[in-house]
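Let's do one together. I've listed all components of the complex below, 815 residues spread over two lines.
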Amino acid sequence: MAEILVVDDSKVMRDMVTACLRPDGNLVVSQAASGLEAIERLSLKAFDLVVLDLNMPDIGGLEVVEFVRAQDKLARLPILILTTRSEDDSRAKILAAGASRYMTKPFAPEVILAEVRALLETGHASGAG
Amino acid sequence: MQVDLREFRAAYLAEVDEHLGAVNALLHAIAGRPKDQAAPRELRDLMRLLHTVKGLSAMVGIEPIVTISHRMESVLRTADRAGGFMSERALDGLIAGTRAIESRVRQVGKGEPVTEPSAALLEALRDEPVASAGAGSPGAVAPTGASLDVALGPELSGKLTASDKEQLAQGTASGRRGLLVEFAPAPAKAERGHTITTVRQRLAELGEIVRVLPVAVPAGPGTPGGLLFTILLLSDAPAAAVAEAALLDAQDVREILAPRELPVPGRPERAAVEPETALPVEAEDDHGFEAQRGGMLRVDVRRVDDAIEQLSALIVTRSRLARAVAELREAGAATRELEAIVTDNARQLRDLRAAILRVRMVPIDAVLDRLPLVIRGLGKSTGKQVRLVLDSGGAELDKSVAERIFPALVHLLRNAVDHGIEGREERLRAGKPEQATVRVTSSSHSSRQIEIRVSDDGGGVDRAAVARKAGRDVPSTDAQLLELLCRPGLSTRDAADLTSGRGVGMDIVQQIVVDGLGGELALETTAGVGTTFVLRVPLTIAIVEAFVVLAGGARYVVPVPVVEEIIEVDARTTTRGPRVRGQESRFFARRGETVPLVDLCGALGLPGVAQGGVALVVRRGRDEPVAFGIDRILGQQETVIRPLADPLVSVAGVSGTTDLGDGRATLVLDLLALCAKLGRGKDRAA
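Okay, and this is what the predicted structure of the assembly comes out as:
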């Protein structure tokens, strides 16, 4: 069993990602509707992987990544970033902040599922590169 | 298991609709600002919302919306780099882009193919080179900036952006306190529902949240260490009151910035922005939307409709039950207890119905908030100076009614700006201010109706010109004038102009308000002073007490409130009248009044002839009454009216269908609209 936290302020997006992961019965998916909620839940409970949107009010995905990486117990948590094509969200910036992998919307349901499984197997460090 | 993301289209539509509402409110806030005032927060919120729309549209495969929102984002990014300043051209482009996304969202909703953005739209959204930041670049807060840093302390100060600090400075300058709130999440608190999300929601109701920062606290002697949220809040309330209202300990809320002395009470920076535009406060409030969303539940309208469908089945069952009880009673059984249960059941069903219908209600502001941008566009295309004053009165109405009423309001605004408001010279000659005023006010007319008034301070409707155009005598009353205005294709301008031309006339407004929604339309106009259109529409889709009648051997449903009187008609006391629309008409005397008797089937243009032994007397407004001849009345019961899908293809006189419990669709008649149709037909024949 692996605990996944899906973080996005868009409910439809959270539900879509959850639906993409549902075919794998070993994944237990929880949702957080903001970066703040994500930080709170990560501090209260251990998760195996975070799927994180970049573009959120209050504190965005990159700030969540930076905060998570600054904490010892979360330093190796795999983080998969979801982004939409846009010149600002460069790959280098996302990975430099400490994300494990990133995917650009739109993506096929099978692809994100494969990406999550691979990341769960290999962990944070191997993905960044 | 195959996952198909297209299944999320309904949820996509609901969420994008909500985002577009927020986009409209932000554009409206930006449009209302003086040109030299930056709007960095609004720009960032817009960017985030459009980015979300873009991402969602990409996921469900609606590429044209991805393209448009991407272009809009680029325009916004340029403005953001220019320090939050946006050119008029850029703003117009964003407004056009929003309209274009809205129309494509409607296409998705109807299952139509989604059109690619036009070249003109993409040109309007072409990114322009960064304009020089110019006179009012941010940093005007320098005097308070230094003291702000001291008050915040170096650590906190370092984490805030320039626009956060400007917001704090402006907030305290307008008399609010800067409060520092700390919240340490814990499993026990989370179990009680006390999380950063709920704390944030409560604080948003008490003031304006400037920033929320997560802080990792290292473990130390006496403290377990962990996470701490630091929230900066601007509020009118003192720290202790905020702590209490947000269910926090008193020591967790500290005042770090005192309010500055106020030159005038209130919030001067708002008043100075544009004292003229009396627009709803919510639309200008940065955090209004976020705060509102806290307790809201987003529901796919189809789910609510499902519930209504189930409810209508229940109502049908109840009428069968009531009939069965009535039969038992007639057979001599003791039914007192049963009847009491049926009565209770009826009341409970009514309450349940009201509760479900409330779910579909949206604030009228959702419609009115879109009008300022319409006026802005009209002002630009006509060169007239127009200010719009909105007063929503806080009423709510059914979402489907709100959606249908919007095009009617847009048309009335076009009429007001185009035809109602005079040119500059004419206004000055008449001693009026050059800037014209258009007012849209709404109020709950009754528990069932909402009244919306669209007024202008223009020259009034030119009765003679309308009469000439229609080839009729000059009307003596406003009601007669309205009737002429509502003739298909009538326009008081000879040349089809940019906005009001193209054959779209008041007849469309009448069709939406009267025929489509079963409402009323009225006109009040005074030469030289102005014109007011009054719309009264039902707040909800209809479930009404109705008569079931037989006419020409077929069953129809007629809402009870419409019928003034049911009379028995004796053929010997009626007199023959002129033919109306090819139909023979008869008259009879009722309490000294002559009432025309019209065959219901004939009036509907349906086969069959009613026996005419019984007639339903209907009176439209202050018009003379009309009696519709039928075979007989079969009974009276509560019915759920399903409106016909498209008001434009509907038959005049038919407002919808209902199921009387036999699984077949029975037509629900709108005899008021039928009266109007007969009246218009009579005019044409004369």
